Amino acid sequence: MGRIEKKKKLIVERANRKMLGESEMDCPKAAKDLELNTKNRDSAIKADHIKYGPLNVDEPGDYWKDLAEHWDTTEDAAKKSLCGNCVAFDISPRMDDCMPGQVSDKGDLDRKSKELYDKDFDSLSSEEQEDIEEKSDRLGYCWMHNFKCHSARTCYTWAKGGPISEDDVSYDWQERNQE
């Protein structure tokens, strides 16, 4: 089956589920399977082309320095390129429902902070950035590497444009991961 046929089939399946009142898609397997999630996460930590980290965000060691060297930028710039603002980081309502428990120990972003977070982060004042960073430490799902990931970490494959905060976008990422 070609790519276009697969896409058509997925669209029809989504429409049928919606009409029947069912959830559009099941949760990604790694979100529910601790062993698979751990395997995928550990692979992302060890892979030279990914280097997910830092292991401990409160004691990062040389992680940010090494990342800055890899990207040929400053440590401050590298520290702003987080899973929490990556295009593949999914914090949609449906993904929150896939998580095995609470997604944050610091509380969810309030509506004003969420609106600010969805803007270009670099255009915010340092006070707004700090407030959002403090409140946005949370668990989400990484569609690039298929594991539950923490917003305060990052990896070599980080890409600007996130997070995913709408269910439709989350489903689109899941469909693309099935192809």
Give a short synopsis of this structure:
The protein has a 3-stranded antiparallel beta sheet with strand order 1-2-3. It has helices at about 5-20, 30, 35-45, 65-70, 75-80, 95-100, 110-120, 125-135, 165-179, and strands at about 90, 140, 145-150.
Strand content: 5-15%
In helices, the fraction of residues equals 40-55%
Order of helices and strands: HHHHHEHHHEEH
So what's the overall shape? globular
Structural class: mainly alpha
How would you explain this protein's 3D organization?
The chain has 179 residues and is mainly alpha-helical. It has a domain at 28-103 and 138-164. It has 9 helices and 3 strands. The chain has a 3-stranded antiparallel β-sheet with strand order 1-2-3. A hairpin with a 4-residue loop joins strand 2 (139-142) and strand 3. Helix 7 crosses helix 8 (126-135). It is globular.
List the helices and strands and how they pair.
Elements: H1 3-19, H2 29-32, H3 34-46, H4 63-71, H5 75-79, E1 89-90, H6 93-98, H7 111-118, H8 126-135, E2 139-142, E3 147-150, H9 167-178
Antiparallel strand pairs: 1-2, 2-3
Summary tags:
179 residues, mainly alpha, three-stranded antiparallel β-sheet, 3 strands, 47% helix, 6% strand
